[in-house]
Amino acid sequence: MTPPSHPRTPAMDDDFDDALALANGTAGLDAALGPAPGGGPPGASRETGRPAAVGWAEARTAARYAARPGEPAELPLPGALGHVLAEPLPALTDLPAFDTSAMDGWAVAGPGPWALDDSGPGVLAGDTPERLPDGHAVAIATGARVPDGATAVLRGEHGFAGGGRLTAPATPPHGGDIRPRGQECRMGDLLLPAGALVTPAVLGLAAAAGYDRLTVTRRPRAEVLVLGDELLTEGVPAGGRVRDALGPLVAPWLAELGADVVATRHLGDSASALRDALTGGDAEVLVTTGSTAAGPVDHLRPALRELGATFVVDGVAVRPGHPMLLAALPDGRHVVGLPGNPLAAVSALLTLADPLLRTLADRDPEAGPGPARLAERVQGHPEDTRLVPVSHRRGTATPLRFHGPAMLRGIASATALAVIPPGGAGAGAPVHLLGLPRN
Ligand SMILES: Nc1nc2c(c(=O)[nH]1)N[C@H]1C(S)=C(S)[C@@H](COP(=O)(O)OP(=O)(O)OC[C@H]3O[C@@H](n4cnc5c(N)ncnc54)[C@H](O)[C@@H]3O)O[C@H]1N2
Ligand code: MOO
């Protein structure tokens, strides 16, 4: 589909990608490809001598610094999930806010035996009990406020009540089974710093500490534009057409990276529909799929140029996915162009969309599974970084089969993508891993 005019896509490179897939990413590549042409600087195009696409790490850095975090917004607790705190979170109360019984039993004052008023249910959670005189006991429930004057809580299984008396083989130690006020925090203590991700546990803590709303960084709104007349949105592919694999994949992946996806739209291969979509809507980030090469219906780059966009990243020295792009529209919105080959699109998600969205959502740029050692040698591209689906466990990453640019079978059972430097990496070599959404 792509004429040889594209600056970064000589046909040999695509032979290379397919050969890598056939060779299972490890041995046998040289046989599949024949002798590799002579080396050159990373990212340089040896065949054409034209300027190279940027290196993989450089592209990620450019994407990370292409935007600034969103504005702060005050959201009710449920809506704040998945956002990042824009302000530190101080406790609005002591926690616990009062001396609390840690067990079901009796609150006791002083050493036993104790006089027991057993006329009612005792002190329940939510009650405001009266002062307990020395030598007295009162039944108490877990979580109930301990009466003033109580010196300990005696667990139900450690005492014997009857005839208006409570006895125990041993008096509980002073403060026993009482959670003292402020044990977890004092009012004003910093519970979490600005920048913390609001997880379900954070929502619980915030509620416990008295919050109804949280001040968080607004998540970027993203819209997915799926390009290609050949795509079917349902049923078994037939008649030379293929199922849209990226519509279902991209939106939840963007959400996992911190975006609110407002829509996924199928635009076919219409240049005018693409231009309209790039100029309309209120999403700050437009993520397109397909149309990144220079084929007859690859309208993305021409449309962006026509709209006066600035190319932040225009091709990346990475396999798969090297025609990927990141552009800024004149109004400041960003366009991430994912190639149509599905694994190439995943590569572009992790290379460009991930750092851009993390910055916009103010998320940790370095989050990921950390490094691992390769279980076996992985063949490299002579000049470009490779991203290879792996399964990693206990610090060892095993490369997976079916990692061709058009395949999703490998990535679907992968736990990470391993970053293979130009030239490859041997068995036991440490490699950087990129995490994948797990739900
Ligand atoms: N002459 C050359 N042709 C191509 C080169 C090259 O260097 N010279 N580069 C190849 C590389 S690498 C990639 S990656 C692709 C990029 O293609 P586009 O981004 O323009 O995407 P399309 O041409 O529309 O589609 C490519 C391929 O992917 C399939 N596709 C597209 N969208 C989807 C989708 N949503 N779900 C499933 N599959 C999809 C499409 O049917 C094609 O098979 O260009 C190469 N060409
Ligand atoms: O082969 Mo293309 O590298 O991006 O799929």
UniProtKB/TrEMBL annotation:
CDD domains reported in the protein's UniProt record: MoeA
Location of the MoaB/Mog domain: 223-359
SUPFAM superfamilies (alphabetical): MoeA C-terminal domain-like, MoeA N-terminal region -like, Molybdenum cofactor biosynthesis proteins
Residue span of region Disordered: 27-51
Family of the protein in this entry: Belongs to the MoeA family.
Protein name: Molybdopterin molybdenumtransferase
The enzyme's E.C. designation: 2.10.1.1
Organism of this sequence: Streptomyces chumphonensis
Catalytic reactions of this protein: adenylyl-molybdopterin + molybdate = Mo-molybdopterin + AMP + H(+)
PANTHER family membership: GEPHYRIN, MOLYBDOPTERIN BIOSYNTHESIS PROTEIN
UniProt-recorded Gene Ontology molecular function terms: metal ion binding; molybdopterin molybdotransferase activity
Record flagged with keyword Transferase: yes
Cofactor: Mg(2+)
InterPro entries: MoaB/Mog-like_dom_sf, MoaB/Mog_dom, MoeA-like, MoeA_C_domain_IV, MoeA_C_domain_IV_sf, MoeA_linker/N, MoeA_linker/N_sf
Function: Catalyzes the insertion of molybdate into adenylated molybdopterin with the concomitant release of AMP.
Entry's Gene Ontology cellular component terms: cytosol
A single BP term in Gene Ontology: Mo-molybdopterin cofactor biosynthetic process
